[in-house]
Amino acid sequence: VMGIGTELYRCRIGLFSPNRSCSFKNNQPQLGFRGLSFRLVPAVTLCCLLLIAGIELNPGPPIYKCKYCDLSSSSISQYARHAAIHKLRKNFNVPCPYCDRQMKFASLESHISRFHRSARLRPQVMNIQMVKCSTCRLELSTRKDYMDHLQSHLKAGVQIQCVLSNNCQTPFMDKRKFQKHMSRCHAGVADFFEPTVVSVSECRSSSDEHSDEDGDADAGGQDKNFDCTEGAAEDFDPYPYSTIKDEVAKFYLRLEGDFNLPTSTVQMIAEQIKLITELSHHRLKIALKQELESFQIDALVISSVIGQTFKADPIFNVHHKSEDTDHLGTHHLRKKYWEKHFPYVDPKEHYYGLNRSGKRRIAHLISIKETLKVLLKNENIKEKLLKSFSEEEAEPTSVKKDYKDGEAFKKHKCQHNGEKCIQINLFQDAFDFNAFGPSFHKTLGFYYSLASLDPESISKVDLIQIAGFIVEKDLVPTEQEELDGKDVLKEAIQPILDELKDLRENGTVVDGETIPVCLFLLIGDSLGQHTVGGYVKSFSCEFFCRFCPISRTEFHLNPSETKAFRTTEEYDSAVQTAYLKWDQRRKHLLKAAQKATMRKARKAAEKVAARCSAPAKKTLMRTVIPQAAYKKLCAISYKAVKYRPSPFNSIPGFHCSSPSQPVCIAHDLFEGILKCVLPCVMDYFISEKEWFDLPTLNRRITNFKCKGSDARDRPKPFKSIDKLSGHAVENWNTLRLLPIMIADLIEDPDDEVWKVFLNLKEIVEYVCAPKIHWKNKRCVRYTNCVSMAQVAYLKQITRTFANSLKTMDDRFPNCLIPKVHFLCHYSDLIDIFGPLIKVCTLRFESVHMFFKAVIRNSKNYINVTKTMAEKSMLRFASHNSSDLFPADIVYDPSRSRCINLNTFPAEKKSALPKNFNPSQYEVLDTITVKGTEYKTGYYIPLNSSMLSTSLQVGKIDKILLDSSGCVCFLVQSMEAENSFQGYFTINSNKLSFQLLKHEELNDYYPLPSYEVTGKKCITLKHSICDEI
Fold first, then answer.
1. Region Disordered: start and end of each range (predicted)?
2. Which pLDDT does position 214 carry in this prediction?
């Protein structure tokens, strides 16, 4: 069917065969009415049924459409040849035309050959007559006979010549060269020397049968099976000019948006390419002219041929205005082309007054509504979004794995009476570009993500979008603005607030339906959350918690104490109380300033006294109010609530104390509590117990061989005993792996300080749990992803940890920080927000790395917010013109193997289902599923029980991938015993084999094994609970 014209196809299947109810006379059809009444009714009925069913009488050859452009092809070879032009796109994946499975371009050939060989069977009639041997004139009818016959001549030392084409004039004396010739030049010619019906898969296997006899036959390229093997139409152009121009524009777009090259550097590259094409044309024209003149062709014809030929060079044309008026030679023209052909959203400048230096305050904001429209045009995002709506309406299950299982989401759904709603999470954080320099250019960034998507999609950095950038020092109000009661932060982000209000009221269109878009959560570190939430910015105040009104005195007396969460009414009342205190203090300062000014005026000259009038009030207030009094005025609060409410409280249906500001475990635990506690533990072991010294500890850390994902963020050595160096994930891995590193150095496993360390490690495992089964039916009170027993246990061990820091304050000096109090709230916050790991800021802060690289590479610190906003939109346009999602399954097809059940032991065969078809599977040693890498030899937690000290794990023996993209693991079940020293010891008693699908795994995270005193051990990334 593929590779032939529609008319020829229909002719071959008999559509144009003469109607038997017609007779021909003098080559003109004459309708015979005999029997027409008997044939008309069934024919009409059949046509009506086909039309109702939507089936075309003769659909013709299949059409394969490129998902990146509108080009269509009628054969696999054309489809693959054209797809190659897009393969440098980000997250480039080719859908299989037979099963729509997304895969890398290099994997397409292997996939079709392995799983769709029968699907490629197609009838094909070749009007080639019998072929005669050029040596002995023997007539041959099949390719096999032709190959065998000519190879017999070669073995006899007789020279042969291929006669399959007029272009084959080369004589052959070597069998190997003849096989290469047949494989490369006549791969599509199989057993059809006489008119017959064969299939493409048979043709390929026939040619491969000979080419595989020698190792390098067919060694011509990675897409050999697609190299014109299916009779591609001569008029098919896989690379049209418009597509090539788009790819050149996309090349420049990626240079600026993805690779952070400065605009001046990209312009230099464009000019250099322009010069290179000119030089290349010059040399090619000279060579072509000399060659044509040697054939004595007329000079006018030569000039015309050369001119028309080189006018067809698309790379030359897009860099020269004389050849293409819409060329890409300058940054201005490239930007115009990007705005027209790519989803580019232009950043807007927002002016909001003068700062303390008298300079203009300008924020660069990006429309949330416009970027959201572009995102919702993506079919994958739309599909995931619509799927999330159906999941919301589904019956509650025993698995709690998302924020949708928390009380905050249920409360939010009640506002919409159960109707559809798109939730977005807004993240804010201030970041600097130079870790050692002054924070003069420190910028406050606002990002947002679609919270309605599944957790795997929310965590992808490419789906985190920019809302705006503001220079942080511009958010500090002047003295006059403070006295006038102006909220500078609210003025700076007013366009964002207006858009969020509009999106909630008017919504956005998704699949023809208008759905409201609501702000669901504000995400950030503790300082940022307090800044935008209207709380105190200092954590050394008497009241420091945004969740409850506990005082510092009460916290130090009982560190494990927590009070009831602050309600919205209590928050608003606290704002009013703080405002009354602030207003009273402000009036007192103004009155005192006026008295001081009048005293100075009476002592000064009349000109000075005149300045005390109303027009000079601004200067008067700035100079007379003491700085100490002004700072006290700005610090006024009531139970940690400031005198100005959060700007986001003006959005209908949202209130920051509902609560809508979750904690960040990365800042609180990994870069807060852990940085305080772990150095104290090591100092105790080194200085007091003298179990080891600092060089020994660092040597253990440096020489420890981390495996898997642990190697990407391996623990950092201690530079000094007073400080833990490393970022959040490195500190997390230090906590996880340190018990294995120093297991043989701990002389007393019951040491109280060591128990505090293990207590903290256990807390982290529970807090970082992404999904846990909830099977305690008696505990219906809690509706989160962690069972009641786990929530109660987490609350218990956090209280134990907080009280230990107080009772052993000599061992842990200065460790009783406010983040310890936040930790005591975690068990209750899980009930509200679901798994706290799902609202962590780490994925958002990964975006900071891009903007830091932008400023460093541009080497321009003038108007940094504009530079970052423009680069972020170029990056947005680049990503949204490609695939936002990488393939769910990534593997190397060259390392896949077929299954040979004959080599399987009996215990492995017993784990396979009865209908197991080995031809539909391939065996792999490594595979990446949804960003998680699995390898043979790794351990997967299968189930656990809080009433048992053991954990059942499965050692990955084989990874199986079927033709539909389903990943299965053949695992060997084992028991892992809890050592109660921070790790589990693998029991060498092997149980049985199981075949598990990836979606059936209780826990998705594979664990590498390490050796401790000669035994294999694993350390958990997060807690596992399957039974209670």
1. 204-224
2. 36
